[in-house]
Amino acid sequence: MTITYEETRELAQRTVVDARYPNINIYTLDAIWVLYDRVLRVDPQRIDDPARDRFLLSKGHGPSAFYAVLAAKGFFPAEWLDTVADLESPLGSHPDATLVPGAEISSGSLGHGLPLGVGVALGQRATGHRDAQVYVLVGDAELDEGSNHEAIAYAGAVGLANLNVIVADNDSASHGWAGGIASRFAVNGWSTATEDMHDHDALYRAFTAPHPDRPHVTVATVRT
Amino acid sequence: MFRSSPLTDDLQRLTMRDAFAAAAADLLDRDPRVAVVLADISADLFRKAAEAHPDRVVNVGIREQLLVGAAGGLALAGLRPIAHTYAPFLIERAFEQVKLDFERQGTSGVLVSVGASYDWAEGSFTHFGPRDVALFDTLPGWRVFVPGHAAEVPPLLEEAVDSEEGAYVRLSLRHNEAPHGGTDGALSVMRRGKRAAVIAVGPVLDNVLAAAEGLDVTVAYTNTPRPLDTEGLRDLAAETGGTVVMVEPYLEGTSAWLVSKALSDRPHRLLSIGVGREELRRYGTAAQHERLHGLDAEGIGARVREFLGPA
């Protein structure tokens, strides 16, 4: 059974992940959907395959869209979405990788996914899985955390080509990013693209554009 | 006046850090899962290993959050990471990474520090790490190794790397004249007495043995304070009327909660000796700081005598 994007969107919208913030924000859905539908080499039957691509949701707050895509792609039953954040539910308001099939990292505190992603990319290289790609999704406000900038500078300097970052940019950083988000990566030697979050074909092209000698960032913008 | 020089005090043919670098290089050669992550500190000691294993010896520059985060990522990719830098930068500056990037991810790693509580005394407070072991006591699942001699480092590092548990290895320039203890975590009894069981952790052993001269006390050694050998401690305390002295080369009282828990079913008495909380705002040498904190033989002896009272 194939679940469409529209059906996944409905799944995400019915998934209240945080009773304190009942207005569900699923602006990351397009990017996560395009990755799991068209880009990532992952298989819900082989979630521990060492050669798999990896998606690291660093911005763990408000994971409705992530949970909906994992359910749509068969990582766990869609019924799990109806009891999110219950005491016995494996799905919480921040994902726990040890409880959620297909979740590569536990997140919640901002600024951890990109440094972890650097390590995973180094590890894939060291274990001979040089083709395996690592995709890390961060928020534009999450970039405030300095740990990201340690990772951006280092990954650019060493040309960590199997590392990919998606910045879900809904213009939520309190002090903005004068000069643009992509410039922070470009100055460190990254390949960059800035696309409209709702344009799935443009996202697909940005996520799969070759960057053989350097890491790549896609800034996916949402302007409401 | 007590004088010593940072250049001649503590001169060692082979430091714990040298022994660590050599042992880590052997492990890199032997085990394709092992990776070393550095943040400039000690990078010169790993130059050859980095040439031999460019994918598994990584220097991220002066970036400690990335040091620990990248080590966590390597663990997620199936490697056994060893992350290494100065104690306060590894454990205090990057503590949220230590907390969230291993155990919470369902993985573990090996963290190896240098600097200890006051090794670089002339560098002063910014480079002092006496709080490290206490911080690990706030986290689940970490073992802590505190070698007392360079020769104890390779077997402890191997034990740490070959395990699937998280491990913190605390290296120091302070050291005993000879290596002691094994890798099984058990307390090693150095001498027996009746009035107290004195437990010495890592490099304070020689001072403890000198302090115990003429006292009717048991002295036991461990280089593995976590998990503490509480069974061994109970057996020793049973022979000394429940009187225990814990001498640790880091924050005084770090192990008090564990000793109290281990002996909670019987009357007992505990004296904790370790590094004080106050900031001394002094330079000098590590030996001088040891003396200021009462961790030299004279200081330990005076406190134990006062604690035990007349025989």
Q: Would you kindly provide a written description of the structure presented here, covering whatever features stand out?
A:
The complex is a heterodimer of chains A (224) and B (311). Chain A is of the alpha/beta class and 224 residues long. Chain A has one domain (5-221): Rossmann fold (3-Layer(aba) Sandwich). In chain A, 32% of the residues lie in helices and 13% in strands. Chain A contains 7 helices and 5 strands. In chain A, strands 1-2-3-5-4 form a 5-stranded parallel sheet, sandwiched between helices. In chain A, helix 1 crosses helix 3 and helix 2 (29-39) runs parallel beside helix 3. In chain B, the strands form 2 sheets. A 6-stranded parallel sheet of chain B has the order 2-1-3-4-6-5, sandwiched between helices. Chain B has a 5-stranded mixed sheet with strand order 7-9-8-10-11, with helices on both faces. Chain B has 12 helices and 11 strands. Chain B starts with 15 loop residues before the first helix and ends with a helix. Chain B has 2 domains: 16-170, Thiamin diphosphate (ThDP)-binding fold, Pyr/PP domains (Rossmann fold, 3-Layer(aba) Sandwich); 188-308, Rossmann fold (3-Layer(aba) Sandwich). The A-B interface holds A 50, 54, 96-98, 104-106, 109, 111-112, 114-127, 146-147, 150-151, 153-154, 157 and B 32, 35, 37, 55-56, 58, 60-61, 63, 65-66, 68-79, 81, 96-97, 100-101, 104-106.
